[in-house]
Amino acid sequence: MSKLGVALGGGGARGLAHIGVLKVLEREKIDIYAITGCSMGSVIGSLYSYYGNAEKVEEIMLNAISKIDLSEIGIPEEQTKNDLSFWDSFVTQIKFRFNVLRSLKDISLIHQEHTEKIFQIIPDVDFSALKIKFSAIATDLISGEEINITRGNLRTAVKSSSAIPGIFPPVRRDNHYFVDGSASESVPAGKVRELGADRVIAINVSHCIKAEEEPQNVLEILFRTEDITSFHLSQERLKEADLIISPNVRHLTWAEFKKAEQIIAEGEKATQQMLPEIEKLMNRYTITLELEQLLKKFKD
Prior knowledge:
The two termini are 30 Å apart. The protein has 300 residues and is of the alpha/beta class. It has eleven helices and eight strands.
């Protein structure tokens, strides 16, 4: 019997497309054996693994999004028109609301108490309570390792995977000091195999790498370089998937939560179009897929 693994990548608001993907797979009665998520992918993946119902996840997320106010953390709405990285946003917030010296004394713009309120949408349960196998990717600031979290408290795991550097405080867990998994693994296609999946669909919601204008200062050059590195890392990770679904959201910024319903619809549309390929994948022999993955590694 085939064991389908789904890898949900990060991307802020673009990650809401994952909901649309899950809605179609559920509607078509395509069983998911395991889900691995990174950043926003870990938020969506954890909720689906717990509730097992995509419409429920959609309801929770749309309700949460209706309460989002980026200005509360110092991001003027006009500043989100360009796809600033989260580190760029950190600098923007310093410029608009904080004294530089004061900001450098803090580890994040959103303090622990507010962070806890934001992540209350994630069930405060153990992984053993999940209906579907799940793991969250986080990056250890101390060792630099990417960690595939597969046990313990679900909310803590998702906070670890979603601790955007400079925005949310890092999470201490099992002798690790975690930040957003996107720092090392933006699309965790390979990690879901560690949960026992024998075929993997990756959902790619990464931003278009082409910039609209040249960097204007040293900070923009540094951040642009970081974005390029992250993009190419994503492309390498995607090679570990058997099938890639790419919703038409690459032109959107990470902060366009007001377009949530449109983004979810794009996830549905992209998955609906890929159904013939998904059906073929589900019917293929596991040994054939394993040999193909092995050949990919030799080619690389």
